[in-house]
Amino acid sequence: MLETKAKETMKQGSVFGQITEMEHEQLVVCHDKATGLKALVGIHNTTLGPALGGTRMWPYATEEEAITDVLRLSRGMTFKNALAGLNLGGGKAVIIGDPKMKNEAFLRRFGRFIEGLSGRYVTAEDVNMSTADMEYIAMETKHVTGLPETRGGGGDPSPVTAYGTYIGMKAAAKKAFGSDSLEGKTIAVQGVGQVGRFLIDYLVKEKADILISDIFEDKLKKVAAETGATIVDPNLIYEVEMDIYAPCALGATLNDDTIDKLKCQVIAGAANNQLKDEEKHGLELQNRGIIYAPDFLINAGGVINVGAEYLGGHDKETVYRQTEKIYDTCLEIFEKSEREQISAQLAAIKVAKERIEAIGRVKLSF
Ligand code: NAD
């Protein structure tokens, strides 16, 4: 609903309309003629601390599309970071263009723009941005995280994201089935990329029946051979008999076309922005009795990892221990959703906003 409203506002050509609707603090437009860099930084909320969120590089068809994306993603980061218990606000950057444009000068110029924000925004990797890219950015700014382990960074965040997703899935199973064991449960994992692949390892250990889909057949065959998972046609993934659907590929897969087809009792996956319309589709899942583990809650392992790196004192054990808290937060959210008769998505946003408000008040006191 919120996004629909924001899109309508966008159509009317109002960037301020959109940021007012979504409650952003700042939208920064960056341009460099020499390198061809065109980037947007969305700073949604800095009450808890510097706005942390990755940079996505994408050949957006229109500027409007890029603005909408950076605004939606940065808002999501505010809730993700707040729920994960981090002292970090929410932000995100998008670079408009073909990832082939990236080179040292391009990335360092982007780094200088970030340095110019004086720490209000901290970047990290996202789609089409790697730990190696972060190294170039780090040559121009301190406000970057997600560096390779060889450079003293926390390394690839995907294994931690997968762990949090697995923990969140177990909490959702506990709510739906009365036990958090995944043994014998049929679980469909959509997308066997970085996160999906690590998630499958946990599911194998739990002796789940695993179904997998991806758009790359070779990848699928390799994962099936390694894990014993069964391959499903990407177009049929929504309608197969399953207990748990784990979206680990794209956003917006929970929509008017798919929800009717889903036969699962639980949805728990890593993909960002799974609900096409967070109010409408969140409510539809609730009305159907499907336990939905909000994506920004259970895929927070990665940001917990990069957040620890930025704030200092990164060590794997602490990061995994903090990620494990996702289990209890999920149960708290499911309970709130039931008690207040609101979707799990809205319950999670409410809890995140409550933390931001409470800590905001603390910060005002001496
Ligand atoms: P990835 O690119 O490594 O993997 C995504 C996989 O999905 C790829 O194998 C791709 O081929 C597949 N895919 C694309 N379209 C598909 C379709 N229509 N049907 C089936 N499969 C399809 O990405 P990732 O790092 O594994 O991230 C997966 C999701 O989790 C993304 O939405 C990402 O934004 C989100 N996420 C990732 C992290 C992280 O730490 N990597 C953290 C938070 C959220």
From TrEMBL:
Q: Which UniProt keywords apply?
A: NAD, Oxidoreductase
Q: Which InterPro entries does the protein's record reference? A: Aminoacid_DH-like_N_sf, Glu/Leu/Phe/Val/Trp_DH, Glu/Leu/Phe/Val/Trp_DH_C, Glu/Leu/Phe/Val/Trp_DH_dimer, Glu/Leu/Phe/Val_DH_AS, Glu/Phe/Leu/Val/Trp_DH_bac/arc, NAD(P)-bd_dom_sf
SUPFAM superfamilies in the record: Aminoacid dehydrogenase-like, N-terminal domain, NAD(P)-binding Rossmann-fold domains
Kindly give the PROSITE patterns that the UniProt entry links to this protein: GLFV_DEHYDROGENASE (PS00074)
Domain Glutamate/phenylalanine/leucine/valine/L-tryptophan dehydrogenase C-terminal: start-end pairs? 155-364
Top-level taxonomic group: Bacteria
Family to which this protein belongs: Belongs to the Glu/Leu/Phe/Val dehydrogenases family.
State what protein this is by name.
Glu/Leu/Phe/Val dehydrogenase dimerization domain-containing protein
Task: Write down the species.
Answer: Algoriphagus sediminis
Please name the taxonomic classification of the source. Bacteria, Pseudomonadati, Bacteroidota, Cytophagia, Cytophagales
